[in-house]
Amino acid sequence: MTYQKRLFDEQPDAIDFKLPDADVVLYTNFFSSEESNKLFKSLKETIEWQQDQVKFYGKVMDVPRLTALYGNDTNVYRYSGLTFYPKNWNEDLQFIKKRVESVAKVEFTSCLLNYYRDGRDSMDWHQDNEKELGNNPVIASVTFGAMRTFQLKHLNRTDLNRVDIPLNHGDFLLMQGKTQHFWKHKIPKTKKQIGSRINLTFRVIKH
Ligand SMILES: O=C(O)CCC(=O)C(=O)O
Ligand SMILES: [Fe+2]
Prior knowledge:
Helix content is 15%, strand content 38%. By secondary structure, the protein is α+β, with helices and mostly antiparallel strands. The protein has one domain (13-203): Alpha-ketoglutarate-dependent dioxygenase AlkB-like (Jelly Rolls, Sandwich). It has an eight-stranded mixed beta sheet. Strands 10-15-12-13 form a four-stranded antiparallel beta sheet. Strand 12 and strand 13 form a beta hairpin. The longest helix is centred in the first third of the chain and has 14 residues, at 33-46. It is globular. Bound molecules: 2-oxoglutaric acid and fe (ii) ion. It comes from Seonamhaeicola marinus. Residues 107-206 form the Fe2OG dioxygenase domain. InterPro entries: AlkB-like, AlkB-like_sf, ALKBH3, Oxoglu/Fe-dep_dioxygenase_dom. One of its GO terms (molecular function) is catalytic activity, acting on DNA. Its cofactor is Fe(2+).
């Protein structure tokens, strides 16, 4: 598949959430609907999705989503209790990576992909603060497919409300600064009848 450079006649909208102790900006329609449709279908078919398992109170359980890790180097990589054998970038990922790098102004080394098959799939509260990500990591999150709500919660400021951000087909959420030190985030399950969703988080991993 070949891609054309985006024509910036339709500028994506940047929404700065101005959260205390964080830097979170949402670029809606960062990918055109045509690009997003193409990428969603292609990623679904070509990414080597894996079913991870975790031990929970001695019981082995499937995590509620499929995952994959791609990047510059293919050394075995363990984090959040999961083991990954990263694959080399493919054409779709290189295209998406380039586009988000033009805004994030960093060169990403890795991309973690999550495939939420339906509303029963989810990701629980966590911070992306592994030491391999360094201090104040820059994380570029791209969504294709069904809308899911991305929730953010401050770790100790009980006076602050939870922030719910709808992530739609083609949206790009950029998290940086102190975000991962002070806020946790999750993708809750939903009882709504919805289709599948793919999320990509580009990261800089230092070995
Ligand atoms: O699916 C999402 O939008 C979030 C994924 C996420 O938080 C992660 O991969 O660390
Ligand atoms: Fe995360």
